[in-house]
């Protein structure tokens, strides 16, 4: 009896002298989560004081709360965020073939419902389900005006680092090796590119600023697929 009285005394000493509203809410939550485990069962497994039983209930309540928050985060990332993210479509080549989308350098573009009144849409939309990357040749980033040392892309400027002769030689070699798929004007501006259904240059290249804006507005997702 003396031992039990001593335990009750220690338990009483550990009880906070005053409790806030938040404390009562937390206790209520803990009891709601563990209501199916009565005190006599907890006593039977060794939790013989109110303090020990209350601590066990609070630990279980904390675990359930952490589990719920983790589950909520998974739902937010996997199911809610795609609703608000425009670039959320990812397709395999076979899936792409059955859609109205086109692939441009690993991105999926929808010219059927976006940027519809642009030159880019007029040329790319008829090739739904195919890779039209050749219509948007990325090689134009190495192009610059005659007698100019400025590239339109700052990353290209940094990469070239003043080695203009080497960059021009590489660009000339590229054009020479692709002369069947890219036709040039005499001033080295792009004229025709190979279309998705052709191996020769028969379609206007989309390299202007307006073409790039139209492409950016039409992007709806990404994938890895190149026309073979």
Strand content: 5-15%
> Low-confidence parts, pLDDT < 50 over ≥5 residues?
224-228
Any idea what the radius of gyration is? Answer: 34 Å
Alpha-beta classification? mainly alpha
Task: Describe this structure in a few short sentences.
The chain has helices at residues 2-14, 21-33, 39-44, 50-84, 93-97, 119-124, 154-160, 164-177, 209-218, and strands at 102-104, 107-109, 182-184, 190-194, 201-204, 219-222. With 228 residues, it is mainly α. The protein has two domains: 2-84, no CATH class; 93-222, no CATH class.
What this model shows, in words?
The chain starts with a helix and ends in a 6-residue tail after the last strand. A hairpin with a 5-residue loop joins β3 and β4. The radius of gyration is 34 Å and the shape is elongated. It has two domains: 2-84, no CATH class; 93-222, no CATH class. The chain is mainly alpha-helical. 48% of the residues lie in helices and 10% in strands.
């Amino acid at each position: 009896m003396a031992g039990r009285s001593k335990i009750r005394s220690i338990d009483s000493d550990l009880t906070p002298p005053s409790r806030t509203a938040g404390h009562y809410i937390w206790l209520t939550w803990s009891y709601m989560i563990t209501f199916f485990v009565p005190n006599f069962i907890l006593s039977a497994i060794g939790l013989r004081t109110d303090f020990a039983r209350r601590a066990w209930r609070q630990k279980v309540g904390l675990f359930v709360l952490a589990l719920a928050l983790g589950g909520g985060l998974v739902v937010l990332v996997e199911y809610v965020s795609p609703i608000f993210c425009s670039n959320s479509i990812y397709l395999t080549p076979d899936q792409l073939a059955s859609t109205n989308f086109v692939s441009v350098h690993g991105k999926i573009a929808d010219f059927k419902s976006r940027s519809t009144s642009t030159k880019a849409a007029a040329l790319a939309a008829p090739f739904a389900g195919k890779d039209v990357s050749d219509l948007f040749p990325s090689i134009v980033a190495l192009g610059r005006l005659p007698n100019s040392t400025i590239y339109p892309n700052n990353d290209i400027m940094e990469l070239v680092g003043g080695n203009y002769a080497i960059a021009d030689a590489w660009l000339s070699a590229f054009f020479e090796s692709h002369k069947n798929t890219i036709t040039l004007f005499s001033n080295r501006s792009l004229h025709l590119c190979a279309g998705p259904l052709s191996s020769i240059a028969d379609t206007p290249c989309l390299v202007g600023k307006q073409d790039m804006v139209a492409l950016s507005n039409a992007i709806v997702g990404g994938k890895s697929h190149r026309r073979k």
